[in-house]
Design goal:
By secondary structure, this protein is of the alpha/beta class. About 35% of the residues lie in helices and about 15% in strands. The radius of gyration is 15 Å and the shape is globular.
Amino acid sequence: MKQPILGVTMGDPAGVGPEIIARAAADPAVRRDSRPVVIGAASAMSAALALVASPLTLHAVKHVADCRWADGTLEALDLANVDMATLPRGAVSAAAGRAAYDYVERAVALAQAREIHGIVTAPSTRKRWPRPACSTPATRRSSRGCRTPPTSRCC
């Protein structure tokens, strides 16, 4: 049996989420038990891999079907929705909040389409998520759409 495909939302691209993912994805148990695909900005993930001196190489894709899960690589569904050169690192910003929300929205859509088997979320401040996201949060919508019990709340 193939391991489940887990969509790992990056969280805030200017925060610690990409670094946590970079370290966790290199763990042999993670790679043995699942096929992770980071949902986020490849530029942020690439910077995080370098920052933590990860042994993994980034493989950026536009579709989950293009993932290879080859040894020594980390798959990333690149939404290319932030400019890391202008994003304030380690600071809460509207651009990072919108990006983090986009990652969750894409993960929910992929789960509903059965392209991924589960969603794992990296840390993200919802302080800067778009206001409509807080009135109808993706985390609650995902539990209804995927027929699973809710496990988190938003705002």
